[in-house]
Specification:
binds magnesium ion, seven-stranded mixed sheet, binds guanosine-5'-triphosphate
């Protein structure tokens, strides 16, 4: 799968459209600004597939990217951005819930959590909801480049504890230097094959 990243194609945004692609789909979820779009771009070795921004709350749709003939990546809108009014937040939640329910080819959800901040309320709720839906889940601890090597084990343990998941469900990740890229691809290839 990772060898087909040369041909990445934007195929539309939910809820505007939800094309039947009949390919295994991987979704990337997490708080606003946690680094979802950057992660997707790093996995795909491009700077421009998914729009990144220093303004949180920018991606407001589920953006779908087809990776060769292999799989689909879904960039989910971020949650938990304080400056977004409650009504908009509810709309986002509704949309993400519907997407998760509707998407029959969804094979795995990557929940992104900032390495420095641990798992917060919404992250825990999302992980619990995914467990309940029996959707395979991995947790990516993002921006790990901002921690020293010595700080990392403690940060990973605190995320695992906060989310109530096993330590080995957590992959330290950096879009900046590529840490964790191969491990994430291994997991993606596993769920795509199975
Ligand atoms: N140092 C560092 N910065 C990162 C990393 N990943 C993302 N960033 C920065 O964090 C900011 C947000 O990144 P995005 O990828 O746009 O985050 P997002 O989760 O897609 O944000 P929304 O779409 O708004 O929910 C940008 O300024 C990125 O450059 C990383 O691994 N390391
Ligand atoms: Mg984004």
């Amino acid at each position: 799968v990772r060898n087909q990243v040369g041909s990445v194609r934007f195929v539309g945004s939910y809820p505007e459209t939800l094309p039947e692609l009949n390919l295994p789909e991987i979704a990337f979820a997490g708080r606003s600004n946690v680094g979802k779009s950057s992660c997707l771009n790093r996995l795909l070795n491009t700077k421009k597939a998914a729009r990144t921004s220093s303004t949180p709350g920018r991606t407001q749709l589920v953006n779908l990217f087809q990776v060769g003939a292999a799989c689909v990546f879904a960039d989910l809108p971020g949650y938990g951005y304080a400056k977004v009014p409650g009504v908009v937040r509810e709309q986002w939640k509704g949309m993400v819930d519907r997407y998760l329910q509707l998407r029959t080819d969804l094979k795995m959800v990557a929940v992104l959590v900032d390495s420095r901040h641990g798992g917060q309320d919404m992250d825990g709720l999302l992980v619990d909801a995914l467990l309940e839906m029996e959707l395979p889940t991995i947790v990516l601890a993002t921006k790990v480049d901002k921690l020293t090597r010595n700080e990392r084990p403690k940060a990973m343990a605190s995320i695992a504890e906060g989310l109530g998941v096993d330590l080995d469900a957590i992959v330290p990740f950096s879009s900046l230097d590529g840490t964790g890229r191969e491990e994430v691809w291994d997991r993606i290839e596993d769920v795509c094959a199975g």
